[in-house]
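Input structure tokens:
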């Protein structure tokens, strides 16, 4: 039965070998002690690496969301999920949303926005891994993909930090944002409600992963064709 199949917990995912091999490390291991500045590679190459990581993270987040839907969310509930009243955990962040706002913000604020989004999702994805481990019959594909995204998000954070220091030559002012209610749950919710909250969390992450990719690609465009970036 559906409820027997679900049970209280979280989600996890598998990542095919292509996802594990195509991403280039962002940690600049050729430069011991220089993790956050990456002096051995150019700003252009560093930005390309960061964009590549963001693209992969968004692609896998789409796969995760689809897989979770197929496994745990009956079709009628998929239509209701957007009206369930669950707010995304990054809703309170001062992130530009409209096209005009995004076009008007500075390169510095583009990078700061990406960093805020990345940092805001690190702990929730760890939480998600733990909850998915408690699901009955959650496939390795789901668990492994979730773990992969969580690890790559930390790598992306390192790359964005390096970009900020390389491009802006300044220390970070951003503080990590987290949503305590996502990570602390003293009362176990009903199974279906728990699953829907996990589904909402994953859907929100997919949206924010797309924002990260979009902001970084806009930044790249500004470096090459400043006046023709839509």
């Amino acid at each position: 039965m559906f409820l027997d199949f679900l049970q209280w917990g979280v989600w996890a995912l598998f990542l095919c070998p292509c996802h594990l091999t195509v991403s280039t490390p962002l940690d600049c291991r050729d430069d011991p002690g220089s993790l956050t500045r990456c002096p051995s590679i150019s700003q252009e190459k560093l930005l390309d690496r960061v964009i590549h990581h963001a693209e992969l993270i968004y692609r896998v987040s789409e796969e995760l969301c689809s897989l979770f839907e197929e496994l745990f969310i009956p079709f009628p509930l998929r239509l209701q999920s957007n009206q369930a009243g669950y707010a995304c955990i990054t809703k309170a962040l001062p992130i530009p949303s409209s096209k005009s706002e995004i076009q008007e913000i500075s390169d510095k604020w583009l990078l700061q926005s990406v960093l805020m989004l990345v940092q805001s999702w690190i702990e929730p994805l760890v939480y998600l891994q733990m909850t998915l481990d408690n699901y009955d019959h959650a496939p390795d594909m789901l668990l492994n993909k979730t773990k992969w995204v969580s690890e790559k998000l930390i790598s992306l954070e390192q790359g964005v930090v390096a970009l900020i220091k390389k491009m802006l030559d300044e220390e970070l002012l951003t503080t990590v944002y987290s949503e305590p209610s996502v990570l602390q749950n003293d009362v176990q919710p009903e199974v279906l409600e728990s699953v829907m909250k996990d589904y909402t969390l994953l859907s929100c992450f997919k949206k924010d992963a797309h924002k990260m990719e979009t902001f970084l690609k806009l930044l790249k465009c500004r470096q090459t064709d400043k006046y023709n970036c839509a």
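Residues 1-25, 30-37, 173-187 have pLDDT under 50 and may be disordered. The domain at 43-73+103-170+192-224 is CATH 1.20.1250.10 (Growth Hormone; Chain: A;).
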